[in-house]
Structure formats: structure tokens, C-alpha cells
Amino acid sequence: MRQTVFHIRLRDFELQAERRLDASLQTRPVAIISSHHQNGTVVSVSKEAEEEGLRKGMKVSLVRRMNHGARLLPYNRPLYGRLNHYVHSIVQKFTPTVEPAGYGQFYMDMSGMDHVYKSHEQAGSKISDRVQDQIGLSSFLGISQNKLVSRIATSVVPEKIHRVASGNEPKFLSPLQPPVIPTVHQPPVKKMITFLILNKVRQIQSIVDSADDARRLFGIYAFQLTQEVLGQDFSVVRSPAAKDRILKQAVLHEDTNDEEKIWIEIKRLSEQAAFALRQRSQTAKKVRMEIHYTDGFKHEMSGIFTENDDDAVLAESWRIFQKANTRRNRIRAILLDVSDLIHSAKQMELFEKDTESERMSASVDILRNKYKNISFTKTFNLSPKLGEK
After folding, report:
1. Which segments of the chain are extended strands (E)?
2. What is the residue-averaged pLDDT of the chain?
3. How far is residue 53's CA from residue 47's CA, in Å, rounded to a whole number?
4. What pLDDT digit, counting tens, does each position of 221-264 carry?
5. Of the four, 76, 147, 191, 287, which is 20 to 30 A from 197 by CA?
6. Sign of CA dihedral 221, 179, 334, 273
7. pLDDT band at 111 (very low <50, low <70, confident <90, very high)
8. Mean pLDDT of the 312-327 span
């Protein structure tokens, strides 16, 4: 059976959430910022604020020097998280397989739903109307055979609902600009595309027609790039319960390259990931750390968690971060993506041989399970050097 994937995107989700909470903001210029600190950045802007010269990624210090009437709102994570949960509960009523993809974005596996709705467009209209009626947020919906094309459709097409018919994926992608393709953001690929002045996806499509040319120009990224520019994506929609990965993210209160502050955030993310692994009795064959910088650039590096106690996970996370952080720019966010999970079978010993770290992690886990709304963390000297813990 051919797969049918919907991607629903609530564009400017944070802005819509703020305006839903405060109706007086509906026509006012509004900018949502990561923090009020001078090194904070603009996360989202309304059209009215754009007309006054504000842009995403601007420093708060620059915004304050500009002559504008925009209202600056701090990033309200609890509000966005709650609304995102409501949207998730709504779209789950249309299909049991829904995969969240960040605030205001969801993949929906609608395969086999043809007998329930007259058409995919009708189903999409019902979903959008339900979200609008119950929460008051507008959405865009992309329909295709895979996650990649459906997601791109919601980011570039002005229509509320757009369907890309099977076989039309290359034609749909050809007039778009290269940044819509994920692999284009890999530094070597981006450098080559800039050097060759490739301004449209169709130009990349013509190059990858020759596998030899693609390999010479794009190296190890050639195969993945070829699949993406032709609109091919074989990943499946997975609900959070079935998704075999752990995602932890930290958006820094202020953009910084202070190692001590970054160490604190990575320590927190590591302990959360380690706790989740222990709850599953698993370790991870793949750990990916993604660093997002103030200027929009991102870099990533991979590693492996052979153990799931706090110290081992923290040591590996910090090692990966140091390898990935090759720039001197301030950091805005850090993502820890733990996947390829495997069962951690531990041989029971006649005499106790657990390390002090393992015993400490187990003790803290008891507190975490008992007091779920309180954050527990082991106490270390807050030094970025692991040897000084």
C-alpha cells in the first residue's frame, strides 16, 4: 500500500500563541525574543514588525537602538508547550500515528484513510478547521507520499492545503531554492553549491543525473542529496511512544560562548538523557549533538553511549560538544539526539560491584520518579573540565 503523509505546520506558532493569549496584539508589531539580555536574539516577528525593520536573528541590543514601536515579548516556553500539546491531541483524533516535529509541526500517517474521507484534501480541510475552531490557530497542510516533500510544501506553498501527486515530486522541487533540501546545509555541500552558483533545485537535479559527477562534487553526501532533490524519503511516521530515540534540547537564556554556562546546560541535558536510558534499560549506538549559533549556522557531531550512568553520559556528551564546537560565535541552542537504542543487559553479581557513580544515579532516579515535577541533579564543581568535577 502506498504511503500517504500529511505535514501540518502552524506557521509563526509562537506569535500565534501570544496573539491568542492577548487579543490586543493582533494588529500590533510584535517580536518574540530569546531573552531581554542584550545578547538575546529575535526568534519570531510579525509582518507589522518586519515593516519597521525587525528581522529574525537580530540582536536585542540592536533592536533596542532602532526607532520602532514593536513590542518585545520573552520566549514563553510553558505557553507554547501547552498549546502544542492541545494541537497534538486534536490531530490524533484523525489518525493514531502522529509524529511531533517541533512546536507547531506534526507528521500524520494517513495511509489507508481513503475509505474514511472522500479525498485527502477533504481530510486536510477537516483537520485545519478543527484546529482553528478549537484553539484559534491557523495552519498549513502538505500532502505527499513522504515526510520530506510534505514538510517542504508547508514551508513554501501559500495555499492552506497543497498536495503533491505521486511522481510529481521532482517537478515540485525543481523551481525552489536549494536551502529547502536538508543535505544542502551540510558545510561541504553548501560550499560547493555556493561555488557553482546553483540557485535552483533543478540545477542540482541536472548534476545528480550523473552518479559519477555527483560523487566527484559532493563526496559522501552525493547519494543522500540525490534522493532528496528527487523528492525521495523512505523514513516512516512514528508516534513518540514507538519512536526509538530520545531528544533533549536547550535554548539558552542568552546567546553565549561562556564554557561554564554551556557546561551547565550540557550537564542538564546529559542527565535527562541518561535518566531516560536507565528507565528503558538501554544504551545508545548513536548520539548526535547539534549546536545552533547566533548567526543561524549549525554544526553537529556524533558519538556513542556505551553506559547509561550520569558520569559516562556526561563525559561522552562533553567530548562530542568539544569536537562539534569549532566556531567562536555565541551559541543559541543545543540539541542532543540519542538513537539506535539497544538493550543494556547487566550481569547480576554475587557481591556488590556497582560504581559510586552508578549508585548515585540510581539514588537520584528514585527521587526523580517520586517527585516528577522537581528537577534533581548531582552536585559537581561547575567547571567545563571533566577532571575537575
Report:
1. 5-9, 30-33, 42-45, 71-74, 98-100, 105-109, 140-144, 161-163, 245-256, 282-293, 298-305, 331-343
2. 86
3. 10
4. 999 999 999 999 988 888 876 557 788 888 787 888 899 999 99
5. 147
6. negative
7. confident
8. 92
Cβ atoms of 296 and 57 within 8 Å: the answer is yes
User: 245-388 sits in which CATH class?
Assistant: alpha beta
Q: Per-residue confidence at 389, pLDDT binned at 50, 70, 90?
A: very low
| Cell triple for 329 | 560565535
Q: How far is CA 211 from the centre of its chain?
A: 31
Please classify residue 87 by burial: count the beta carbons closer than 10 Å to its beta carbon, then call 0-12 exposed, 13-18 middle and 19+ buried.
Answer: buried
The dihedrals phi and psi of 68, each to the nearest 5 degrees, come to -150, 165
- Asked if the 5-12+78-169 domain carries CATH number 3.40.1400.10, the reply is no
Burial-class residue 230 by CB neighbours within 10 Å (0-12, 13-18, 19+).
middle
**14-76 topology per CATH:** MutS, DNA mismatch repair protein, domain I (3.40.1170)
| 3-state DSSP assignment of residue 215 | helix
Stated pTM of the model:
0.66
184, amino acid identity: V
3-state secondary structure of 36: coil
Residue 274 neighbours by CB under 8 Å, 6+ apart: 305, 308, 309, 310, 312, 313, 314, 361
